[in-house]
Design brief:
Blueprint (H helix, E strand, L loop, with lengths): L4 E7 L4 H13 L4 E7 L3 H13 L4 E4 L4 H5 L4 E2 L10 E5 L2 E5 L5 H9 L1
Parallel strand pairs: 1-2, 1-3, 4-6
Antiparallel strand pairs: 3-5, 5-6
Length: 115
């Protein structure tokens, strides 16, 4: 079943519980979307994942801590929430990558992605 929106976690590991939690939130909020994990180890992998984001029209990614500093230079623009040189949330805004730092707050992240 295809979903209107696709989101994901970029990092070296992801627990099944993390995917379950995000997918339950999407369902609870009535979002026709799916959250998955995309194994990403380094800046080279980030470039690939961001390219896929455009090609496959993915809406947003959450970045695990080891990738947050590397992502900053790959963003088209940074939100004012990025104050310590780390991006933990990325939104694809019609082909423009916007980096944010929202902490571990899935509800706020989803609200941002759906705005």
């Amino acid at each position: 079943m295809a979903h209107e929106y696709v989101f994901g976690l970029l990092g070296p590991i992801c627990t099944a519980n993390a995917r379950k939690t995000w997918n339950e939130l999407l369902k609870k909020e009535g979002v026709d979307g799916f959250f998955d994990f995309y194994r990403t180890h380094n800046k080279h992998d980030l470039v690939t994942r961001f390219s896929e984001m455009f090609l496959l029209e993915r809406r947003g990614y959450v970045l695990s801590e080891p990738l947050q500093a590397d992502a900053v230079s790959l963003m088209d623009t940074l939100d004012a929430s990025v104050t310590d040189g780390r991006v933990d949330t990325v939104k694809n805004e019609r082909g423009v990558l916007i980096g944010y730092f929202l902490g571990n707050n899935p509800e706020a992240i989803l609200k941002l992605w759906m705005a």
